Amino acid sequence: MLNFNYDIPTKVFFGKDQISVLGEQVKKYGSKVLLVYGGGSIKKSGLYDRVVEILNNANIQFLELSGVEPNPRITSVRKGAELCKENNIDFILAVGAGSVIDCAKVIAAANYYDGDPWDFLTRKAPIQKVLPIGTILTLAATGSEMDPFAVISNLDTNEKLATAHPDMSPKFSILDPTYTFTVPASQTAAGTADIMSHIYENYFSNTKSAYLQSRMAEAMLKTCIKYGPIAYKEPENYEARANLMWTSSLAINGLISYGKETEWSVHAMEHELSAFYDITHGVGLALLTPYWMKYILNDDTVDGFVEYGVNVWGIDSEGDKFEIANKAIDMTREFFVSLGLPTKLQEIGIDRENLETMAKGAVRYGEIGNFRKLNAEDVLKIFESALSSDS
Ligand code: NZQ
Ligand code: ZN
């Protein structure tokens, strides 16, 4: 029975030159801003200069936290939180991709916490209060621009953990697809895989009554399948970049999960790979997804894969169910390969050494998944299947 509360609070300004709203939007929430960004892509593209110009023209004071790493570190969060506390920051503006936005979100929460912000990630302390944040997105992937989640890494403990709070949803996000023209092909591929994985995590479910959500999810998958390869080959194709960008936001903002039991097992597994080997999130997802699909395919789940194969990949619905399901999984893998994404753990420098520890880490809070529940032994088998050369 469908039963849910709709609440997607982020205001979205979508399209070319929407940055013109930046000054007025920031002023709605604060007057002393922490500008958070990454390793320099926004300086190269000229976006940094434009943001600074707008803030200066609007007489908005700001400080900067630069150098936020991909797989953002807790050390950057700590640095940002100190800056906020010492300078009475009242608004955080994240300009960049998912890592920058996630870092900004946890800084925003840490501003109101006296202890170590890592406590939020380990669930030692709940997030109570959060500074308002806004984002200017530069890469279509995580959906962090419109969701309440953040994922932070701790290199000292080999942990990559997620947290969430409703107030960590950005107040506004400026989504100008032209800012993603400079994203390199490899990140475009990883981003597309990340968006698709978010859709899979919501799509494959035991809840059968959320018909509309499932059809929307299929439309989003088809959008990635159509436009991912175009953006990969033609980085300045506005139509492709725009469709990917909007799909990234809608895939994880709640729209397609309302009223559904969701999955989120591939993400739990991938975060272990990133925690130990600092790999790109979307690369790990693309690699693991087909192995996970094969592993969970059984009499209980086959109908879900048939629906996926027929509705998303256009496979003929006549014929053996398992043949259709396996073909859909093969097409998924082939799609990722066509975007230059790897299929074996060895290709990204991962061998057997930490598989068992990572499998345990993936289920640290209990079994993962719902469509088919996975324990540490299952996760280890999935990791192992991604190591061998013939599966
Ligand atoms: O640091 P800069 O110089 O900006 O370069 C970045 C970085 O090297 C570069 N980049 C970004 N925009 C660019 C660009 N290069 C050229 N032109 C542009 N326009 O891309 C590299 C990767 O950036 P990153 O922020 O790490 O990418 P992504 O957006 O994929 O974020 C990944 C992080 O988000 C987490 C992941 O686990 C990972 O830590 N996730 C966050 C989620 C959320 N908040 O809801 C959900 C996701 O499932 C995911 O777990
Ligand atoms: Zn993801």
UniProtKB/TrEMBL annotation:
Alcohol dehydrogenase iron-type/glycerol dehydrogenase GldA domain residues: 9-177
InterPro entries reported in the protein's UniProt record: ADH_Fe/GldA, ADH_Fe_C, ADH_Fe_CS, BDH-like
Domain Fe-containing alcohol dehydrogenase-like C-terminal: 188-386
PROSITE patterns assigned: ADH_IRON_1 (PS00913), ADH_IRON_2 (PS00060)
Database matches in Pfam families: ADH_Fe_C, Fe-ADH
SUPFAM superfamilies: Dehydroquinate synthase-like (SSF56796)
Protein name per the record: Iron-containing alcohol dehydrogenase
Protein species of origin: Clostridium aciditolerans
